[in-house]
Amino acid sequence: MNARPRNPRAFDSTSPPYRGLARAPTRPVALPGPRGCSPLWRGAPSALRPARKSCPLELAVHLRDAVALLGRFPALAGADLDVARGEVVLLRGPNGAGKTTLLRVCAGLAAVSSGVAEVLGVDLVRHRSAIRRRVGLLGHATYLYDDLTVTENVDFWARAAGAEVADGRRALDRLEVASRLHDLPVHTLSAGQRRRVSFAAMVARRPELWLLDEPHAGLDASGRDIIDGLVREAASVGATVLFASHELDRADDVADRTVEVVGGTVVTAPQDAPPLDAPSPLAAPPSEGVASDA
Protein backbone atom coordinates (compact mmCIF):
# COMPACT_ATOMS: atom_id res chain seq x y z
CA MET A 1 0.00 0.00 0.00
CA ASN A 2 1.39 3.39 -0.94
CA ALA A 3 1.94 5.59 2.08
CA ARG A 4 1.09 9.23 1.62
CA PRO A 5 1.50 11.95 4.26
CA ARG A 6 -1.81 13.35 5.34
CA ASN A 7 -2.56 16.82 4.12
CA PRO A 8 -3.75 19.01 7.02
CA ARG A 9 -4.40 22.11 4.94
CA ALA A 10 -7.81 23.55 4.26
CA PHE A 11 -9.98 21.88 1.67
CA ASP A 12 -9.43 23.56 -1.70
CA SER A 13 -12.38 23.32 -4.08
CA THR A 14 -10.40 24.99 -6.90
CA SER A 15 -7.75 22.27 -7.18
CA PRO A 16 -7.95 18.83 -8.83
CA PRO A 17 -10.32 17.04 -9.11
CA TYR A 18 -12.27 20.30 -8.91
CA ARG A 19 -9.94 22.26 -11.20
CA GLY A 20 -11.94 24.02 -13.89
CA LEU A 21 -15.17 23.93 -11.91
CA ALA A 22 -16.61 27.32 -11.14
CA ARG A 23 -16.64 28.39 -7.52
CA ALA A 24 -20.10 28.30 -6.02
CA PRO A 25 -21.66 31.72 -5.32
CA THR A 26 -21.39 31.19 -1.57
CA ARG A 27 -18.78 32.02 1.00
CA PRO A 28 -15.68 29.79 0.70
CA VAL A 29 -15.67 26.60 2.73
CA ALA A 30 -12.57 25.46 4.61
CA LEU A 31 -12.24 22.67 7.07
CA PRO A 32 -11.73 23.77 10.67
CA GLY A 33 -8.08 24.48 11.46
CA PRO A 34 -6.13 24.86 14.68
CA ARG A 35 -6.69 28.63 14.78
CA GLY A 36 -10.48 28.50 14.83
CA CYS A 37 -13.65 27.56 13.06
CA SER A 38 -14.14 27.22 9.34
CA PRO A 39 -15.61 30.30 7.61
CA LEU A 40 -18.72 28.19 7.07
CA TRP A 41 -19.49 28.45 10.76
CA ARG A 42 -18.85 32.17 11.30
CA GLY A 43 -22.16 33.78 12.09
CA ALA A 44 -23.96 30.45 12.23
CA PRO A 45 -26.26 29.63 15.14
CA SER A 46 -24.23 28.51 18.14
CA ALA A 47 -26.00 25.13 18.15
CA LEU A 48 -24.48 24.35 14.75
CA ARG A 49 -20.89 25.33 15.48
CA PRO A 50 -18.31 22.56 15.80
CA ALA A 51 -18.21 20.91 19.21
CA ARG A 52 -14.52 21.53 19.89
CA LYS A 53 -14.38 19.69 23.18
CA SER A 54 -15.29 16.27 21.84
CA CYS A 55 -14.00 16.39 18.25
CA PRO A 56 -10.37 17.34 17.57
CA LEU A 57 -10.33 19.99 14.86
CA GLU A 58 -8.03 18.02 12.58
CA LEU A 59 -10.52 15.16 12.30
CA ALA A 60 -13.04 14.88 9.48
CA VAL A 61 -14.83 11.90 11.07
CA HIS A 62 -15.06 11.21 14.79
CA LEU A 63 -17.17 8.30 16.08
CA ARG A 64 -17.19 7.06 19.66
CA ASP A 65 -19.40 4.15 20.72
CA ALA A 66 -21.80 5.11 17.91
CA VAL A 67 -24.96 3.03 17.62
CA ALA A 68 -27.28 3.10 14.59
CA LEU A 69 -30.40 0.97 14.41
CA LEU A 70 -32.15 -0.60 11.44
CA GLY A 71 -35.50 -1.23 13.06
CA ARG A 72 -34.42 -2.91 16.28
CA PHE A 73 -31.22 -4.33 14.82
CA PRO A 74 -27.98 -2.46 15.70
CA ALA A 75 -26.32 -2.15 12.28
CA LEU A 76 -23.65 -0.13 14.10
CA ALA A 77 -23.07 -1.48 17.59
CA GLY A 78 -20.66 0.87 19.34
CA ALA A 79 -18.40 1.91 16.45
CA ASP A 80 -15.23 3.92 17.11
CA LEU A 81 -13.49 5.62 14.19
CA ASP A 82 -11.29 8.67 13.64
CA VAL A 83 -10.43 9.85 10.12
CA ALA A 84 -8.07 12.77 9.60
CA ARG A 85 -8.57 15.48 7.01
CA GLY A 86 -7.07 14.55 3.67
CA GLU A 87 -6.94 10.86 4.58
CA VAL A 88 -8.15 7.99 2.39
CA VAL A 89 -9.50 5.14 4.52
CA LEU A 90 -10.69 1.77 3.24
CA LEU A 91 -13.49 -0.07 5.03
CA ARG A 92 -13.41 -3.80 4.53
CA GLY A 93 -15.50 -6.59 5.93
CA PRO A 94 -18.11 -9.19 5.03
CA ASN A 95 -21.58 -8.41 3.75
CA GLY A 96 -23.83 -7.34 6.59
CA ALA A 97 -20.96 -6.07 8.75
CA GLY A 98 -22.23 -2.47 8.80
CA LYS A 99 -20.06 -0.75 6.18
CA THR A 100 -22.92 0.81 4.26
CA THR A 101 -24.64 1.92 7.46
CA LEU A 102 -21.42 3.58 8.62
CA LEU A 103 -21.18 5.51 5.34
CA ARG A 104 -24.84 6.54 5.59
CA VAL A 105 -24.29 7.74 9.15
CA CYS A 106 -21.39 9.91 7.98
CA ALA A 107 -23.60 11.28 5.20
CA GLY A 108 -26.30 12.28 7.68
CA LEU A 109 -28.77 9.82 6.14
CA ALA A 110 -28.90 7.29 8.99
CA ALA A 111 -29.65 8.38 12.55
CA VAL A 112 -27.29 7.72 15.45
CA SER A 113 -29.31 6.59 18.46
CA SER A 114 -26.49 6.87 20.99
CA GLY A 115 -22.81 7.64 21.28
CA VAL A 116 -20.78 10.42 19.65
CA ALA A 117 -20.84 11.00 15.88
CA GLU A 118 -19.29 14.15 14.42
CA VAL A 119 -18.43 14.81 10.79
CA LEU A 120 -16.61 17.97 9.70
CA GLY A 121 -17.31 19.34 13.16
CA VAL A 122 -21.08 18.79 12.98
CA ASP A 123 -22.82 16.84 15.74
CA LEU A 124 -24.77 14.23 13.78
CA VAL A 125 -26.78 13.14 16.80
CA ARG A 126 -28.52 16.53 16.94
CA HIS A 127 -27.98 18.16 13.54
CA ARG A 128 -27.32 15.48 10.94
CA SER A 129 -29.15 17.34 8.17
CA ALA A 130 -26.62 20.19 8.48
CA ILE A 131 -23.85 18.06 6.95
CA ARG A 132 -25.52 16.88 3.77
CA ARG A 133 -24.39 19.65 1.44
CA ARG A 134 -20.77 19.18 2.50
CA VAL A 135 -20.50 15.44 1.85
CA GLY A 136 -20.87 13.31 -1.25
CA LEU A 137 -22.24 9.76 -1.08
CA LEU A 138 -21.88 7.32 -3.95
CA GLY A 139 -23.79 4.19 -3.01
CA HIS A 140 -25.45 1.26 -4.71
CA ALA A 141 -28.33 3.52 -5.77
CA THR A 142 -27.49 6.09 -8.44
CA TYR A 143 -29.76 8.91 -7.16
CA LEU A 144 -30.37 9.81 -10.81
CA TYR A 145 -33.75 10.58 -12.37
CA ASP A 146 -34.37 8.07 -15.15
CA ASP A 147 -36.50 10.36 -17.32
CA LEU A 148 -34.06 13.29 -17.20
CA THR A 149 -31.07 13.50 -19.50
CA VAL A 150 -27.50 13.04 -18.34
CA THR A 151 -26.89 16.79 -18.42
CA GLU A 152 -30.14 17.60 -16.61
CA ASN A 153 -29.31 15.16 -13.82
CA VAL A 154 -25.81 16.48 -13.22
CA ASP A 155 -27.00 20.10 -13.45
CA PHE A 156 -29.69 19.38 -10.87
CA TRP A 157 -27.23 18.00 -8.32
CA ALA A 158 -24.75 20.79 -8.96
CA ARG A 159 -27.42 23.43 -8.34
CA ALA A 160 -28.62 21.61 -5.23
CA ALA A 161 -25.15 22.11 -3.75
CA GLY A 162 -24.97 25.78 -4.76
CA ALA A 163 -22.60 25.12 -7.66
CA GLU A 164 -22.97 26.42 -11.20
CA VAL A 165 -24.33 24.66 -14.26
CA ALA A 166 -20.90 24.67 -15.90
CA ASP A 167 -19.58 22.59 -13.01
CA GLY A 168 -21.72 19.65 -14.07
CA ARG A 169 -20.52 19.79 -17.67
CA ARG A 170 -16.87 19.86 -16.64
CA ALA A 171 -17.42 17.01 -14.20
CA LEU A 172 -18.84 14.91 -17.03
CA ASP A 173 -15.67 15.60 -18.99
CA ARG A 174 -13.55 14.54 -16.01
CA LEU A 175 -15.40 11.22 -15.89
CA GLU A 176 -15.01 10.88 -19.67
CA VAL A 177 -18.74 10.60 -20.26
CA ALA A 178 -19.05 10.76 -24.04
CA SER A 179 -20.71 13.94 -25.31
CA ARG A 180 -23.10 11.85 -27.44
CA LEU A 181 -24.66 10.62 -24.18
CA HIS A 182 -25.26 14.04 -22.62
CA ASP A 183 -28.73 14.55 -24.10
CA LEU A 184 -29.94 10.98 -23.62
CA PRO A 185 -32.33 9.98 -20.82
CA VAL A 186 -30.50 8.20 -18.05
CA HIS A 187 -32.68 5.09 -18.38
CA THR A 188 -31.10 4.41 -21.79
CA LEU A 189 -27.56 4.14 -20.36
CA SER A 190 -25.66 1.02 -19.39
CA ALA A 191 -24.86 0.34 -15.74
CA GLY A 192 -21.28 1.51 -16.19
CA GLN A 193 -22.35 4.72 -17.91
CA ARG A 194 -24.85 5.44 -15.14
CA ARG A 195 -22.09 4.90 -12.59
CA ARG A 196 -19.88 7.48 -14.29
CA VAL A 197 -22.73 9.98 -14.43
CA SER A 198 -23.43 9.43 -10.72
CA PHE A 199 -19.79 10.07 -9.90
CA ALA A 200 -19.80 13.21 -12.07
CA ALA A 201 -22.83 14.50 -10.18
CA MET A 202 -20.95 14.02 -6.92
CA VAL A 203 -17.74 15.67 -8.15
CA ALA A 204 -19.73 18.67 -9.43
CA ARG A 205 -20.89 19.30 -5.85
CA ARG A 206 -17.23 19.57 -4.64
CA PRO A 207 -17.79 17.70 -1.36
CA GLU A 208 -15.32 17.95 1.49
CA LEU A 209 -15.95 14.32 2.44
CA TRP A 210 -16.28 11.56 -0.15
CA LEU A 211 -18.24 8.49 0.97
CA LEU A 212 -17.98 5.71 -1.59
CA ASP A 213 -19.69 2.32 -1.38
CA GLU A 214 -18.06 -0.11 -3.84
CA PRO A 215 -16.99 2.75 -6.15
CA HIS A 216 -15.54 0.42 -8.81
CA ALA A 217 -18.71 -1.65 -9.20
CA GLY A 218 -20.03 -1.75 -12.76
CA LEU A 219 -17.05 0.09 -14.25
CA ASP A 220 -14.61 -1.09 -16.89
CA ALA A 221 -10.84 -0.85 -16.42
CA SER A 222 -10.73 2.71 -17.77
CA GLY A 223 -13.50 3.85 -15.44
CA ARG A 224 -11.82 2.27 -12.43
CA ASP A 225 -8.57 4.03 -13.20
CA ILE A 226 -10.41 7.35 -13.47
CA ILE A 227 -12.02 6.83 -10.07
CA ASP A 228 -8.69 5.96 -8.45
CA GLY A 229 -7.09 9.06 -9.93
CA LEU A 230 -9.91 11.31 -8.73
CA VAL A 231 -9.69 9.88 -5.21
CA ARG A 232 -5.95 10.59 -5.05
CA GLU A 233 -6.44 14.11 -6.39
CA ALA A 234 -9.25 14.86 -3.95
CA ALA A 235 -7.14 13.78 -0.98
CA SER A 236 -4.17 15.82 -2.20
CA VAL A 237 -6.19 19.05 -1.86
CA GLY A 238 -7.60 18.28 1.59
CA ALA A 239 -10.78 16.34 0.85
CA THR A 240 -11.30 13.20 2.91
CA VAL A 241 -12.30 9.85 1.41
CA LEU A 242 -13.94 6.97 3.26
CA PHE A 243 -14.82 4.02 1.04
CA ALA A 244 -15.93 0.41 1.24
CA SER A 245 -14.65 -2.13 -1.24
CA HIS A 246 -14.20 -5.86 -1.72
CA GLU A 247 -11.57 -5.27 -4.43
CA LEU A 248 -8.77 -5.19 -1.91
CA ASP A 249 -5.80 -5.29 -4.28
CA ARG A 250 -6.95 -2.17 -6.10
CA ALA A 251 -8.28 -0.44 -2.99
CA ASP A 252 -5.05 -0.95 -1.03
CA ASP A 253 -3.14 0.98 -3.70
CA VAL A 254 -5.39 3.99 -3.12
CA ALA A 255 -5.96 3.90 0.65
CA ASP A 256 -3.68 5.34 3.32
CA ARG A 257 -4.92 2.74 5.78
CA THR A 258 -7.51 0.01 6.19
CA VAL A 259 -9.99 -0.68 8.96
CA GLU A 260 -12.27 -3.67 9.29
CA VAL A 261 -15.94 -3.53 10.14
CA VAL A 262 -17.08 -6.62 12.05
CA GLY A 263 -20.54 -7.04 13.52
CA GLY A 264 -21.23 -3.31 13.52
CA THR A 265 -17.94 -2.39 15.19
CA VAL A 266 -14.72 -1.00 13.73
CA VAL A 267 -11.36 -2.65 14.34
CA THR A 268 -7.90 -1.85 13.01
CA ALA A 269 -6.88 -4.25 10.26
CA PRO A 270 -3.34 -5.64 9.99
CA GLN A 271 -2.20 -5.03 6.43
CA ASP A 272 -1.16 -8.65 5.87
CA ALA A 273 -4.41 -10.13 7.19
CA PRO A 274 -6.56 -12.22 4.84
CA PRO A 275 -9.82 -10.60 3.73
CA LEU A 276 -12.74 -11.19 6.02
CA ASP A 277 -14.79 -12.46 3.09
CA ALA A 278 -12.51 -15.50 2.78
CA PRO A 279 -14.24 -18.44 4.50
CA SER A 280 -12.41 -20.09 7.36
CA PRO A 281 -11.60 -23.77 6.80
CA LEU A 282 -13.03 -24.42 10.26
CA ALA A 283 -16.24 -22.46 9.72
CA ALA A 284 -19.56 -24.18 9.25
CA PRO A 285 -21.23 -23.65 5.86
CA PRO A 286 -23.66 -20.70 5.81
CA SER A 287 -27.36 -21.40 6.12
CA GLU A 288 -29.20 -21.50 2.82
CA GLY A 289 -31.65 -18.74 2.06
CA VAL A 290 -30.09 -16.26 4.50
CA ALA A 291 -28.47 -13.19 3.03
CA SER A 292 -27.73 -9.75 4.34
CA ASP A 293 -25.98 -6.65 3.16
CA ALA A 294 -24.76 -3.62 5.01
CATH topology of the domain at 54-145 and 208-268: the name is Rossmann fold
Name of the CATH superfamily of the domain at 54-145 and 208-268: P-loop containing nucleotide triphosphate hydrolases
CATH architecture of the domain at 54-145 and 208-268: 3-Layer(aba) Sandwich
Q: Major sheet: order of its strands?
A: 6-7-8-3-9-10
**CATH C-level of the domain at 54-145 and 208-268:** Alpha Beta
How far apart are the first and last residues' alpha carbons, in Å? 26 Å
- How would you classify the helix and strand content by structural class? alpha/beta
Strand content: 15-25%
Taken in chain order, the helices and strands follow as EEEHEEHEHHHEHEHEE
Report the C-alpha radius of gyration, rounded.
Answer: 19 Å
Poorly predicted regions: 22-55, 269-276, 278-294
Structure explained in plain terms:
The protein is an alpha/beta fold and 294 residues long. It has a domain at 54-145 and 208-268: Rossmann fold, CATH 3.40.50. The protein is built from 7 helices and 10 strands. The chain has helices at residues 99-106, 124-127, 150-160, 165-174, 191-204, 221-236, 248-254; strands at residues 59-70, 73-84, 88-92, 114-119, 122-123, 135-138, 209-213, 240-244, 257-262, 265-268. The longest helix has 16 residues, at 221-236. The radius of gyration is 19 Å and the shape is globular.
